Amino acid sequence: MHTTPSITAALLALCLIAPSFAASAPPTNEDQPQWASYRGPSATGVAKAHLPTTWNVETGENVRWSIEIPGLAHSSPVVWGDRVFVTTAVRIEGEAKLRVGLYGDIAPVNDEGEIAFRVLCFRLSDGELLWDKLAYQGVPKIKRHTKASHANSSPSTDGTTVIAMFASEGLYAYDFDGNLKWKKDFGVLDTGYHVVKSAQWGFASSPVIHRDRVIVQADVQGQSFLTALNVDTGAEIWRTDREEVPTWSTPTIAPRPTGDQPGQEGTEQILINGWKHTGGYDFTTGKELWRIEGGGDIPVPTPIIAGHLALLTSAHGPSRPIRAIHLSATGDIQGTEAIAWEHEKAGNYMQTPIVVNGVAYFCYDNGVLSAYDAATGERLFQHRLGGGKSGFSGSPVSDGQHVFFGSEDGDVYVIKAAREFQEVALNELGETFMSTPAIASNTILFRARKHLIAIGKTVGE
């Protein structure tokens, strides 16, 4: 590995600037769970918070702070206490190009040169940079899609350790002071279109920390696998091979009830999206619990939980299902009563859906939003966000009262969390937006193309 620390340091000195707006201390909420991984607690995307529905990035209205971050990344911020962790990939020479919008070009980006893969820590209250660490520098082993980045995977933390996944460039564990605890090399993780294997698109599945383990899903060209590592040492606890084409979904930890009612005591399982093999695995052993095949052949959305059901969706190709599966499912569930309800042609391609107050929201790439009763699958409404020209790639989040949907153009649609469609507000971030927001301490964090933006009401409002 060839490194040029002086170049990187100079680059960061130019790009990591002071916050654009004066910071104000956010109101605290000690009962609020940490937003410790992609999509927050149990990948729900929901955190009870008091958030503004309107803001203005240009004037600073309801903007706590905004700080420029170097490089290109679609990873989401994660939060523990007053610390915000993000990852990024910085080109050593030139600026990374990004092509957004609705298009079907499968070709990867060529000749990007060396990339610095970095992990950064900011203070939530005022946006101050606390530390910045170089994990790896070199020419990426796998190319990225024109709409992707080399830092798609969101970090994860348990309050002691921060895990950052850079795919073929390694998995890295840091303590809260930025000291490297351990790293692991999985070899080349080739993620691309399984029909045209030269179309490399970049890795995107995020690591998840649960109890004393780091769970990593690696569905790739070649031998796909699911693995559990010791969070303190990186030692492999178990590894389960998967017969699967490349996917870009993050695993979800879910209860494994002994019966069919929520709250019944049982074991825990890992929910995995896939094309050849969607299923559940025992958290302790990695043993397969249930499986189903078929659906969209480019699975991206993360499984989510709705009561005693797991909601899974995928798209691309002739099939784009939404499936509601009982968490107590066992064995091959194709065509069985383990599937509570299903819609064959309604699933998402990019976005992970969200369930708020019993309503499940599914948004297509073109902004068509459908809402369903999460328990029965009854469609409640369908409405288009935007004019149909902008893409929607980042996943929605909610404060329990509203749902926030961000377009690739940087428009954030705020709708009421209800069984009928009601648009509350439309806000602009002022730049391209491809990631999923985070919510913590009555603040919503947007990782946009150039900036990390903290939105929240000021004290006393």
Describe the fold and architecture.
The chain has 461 residues and is mainly beta. The protein has a single domain, classed as Methylamine Dehydrogenase, Chain H, CATH 2.130.10. The chain contains 1 helix and 33 strands. The strands form 8 sheets. A 5-stranded mixed beta sheet has the order 14-15-16-17-21, with no helix packed on it. A 4-stranded antiparallel beta sheet has the order 1-33-32-31, with no helix packed on it. The chain is globular, with a radius of gyration of 20 Å.
Question: What's the short story on this structure?
Answer:
The protein is mainly beta. 2% of the residues lie in helices and 37% in strands.
Task: Give the arrangement of secondary structure elements.
Blueprint lengths: L4 H11 L47 E6 L9 E3 L2 E9 L23 E9 L5 E10 L17 E2 L3 E5 L5 E5 L4 E5 L23 E3 L2 E6 L5 E7 L5 E7 L9 E6 L8 E7 L5 E5 L5 E5 L11 E3 L2 E5 L8 E5 L4 E2 L6 E5 L10 E3 L2 E5 L4 E6 L5 E6 L12 E2 L3 E5 L4 E6 L6 E6 L9 E3 L2 E5 L3 E5 L6
Parallel strand pairs: 17-21
Antiparallel strand pairs: 1-33, 2-3, 3-4, 4-5, 6-7, 7-8, 8-9, 10-11, 11-12, 12-13, 14-15, 15-16, 16-17, 18-19, 19-20, 20-22, 23-24, 24-25, 25-26, 27-28, 28-29, 29-30, 31-32, 32-33
Largest sheet: 5 strands, mixed
> How many domains?
1
Helical region count?
1
Q: How many DSSP-defined strands?
A: 33
Radius of gyration, rounded? 20 Å
- Class by helix and strand content? mainly beta
CATH class: Mainly Beta
Physical arrangement of strands within the biggest beta sheet? 14-15-16-17-21
Q: Could you tell me how far the N terminus lies from the C terminus, measured between alpha carbons in angstroms?
A: 51 Å
| Overall average residue pLDDT | 91
- In the predicted model, the low-confidence regions spanning at least 5 consecutive residues are 1-32
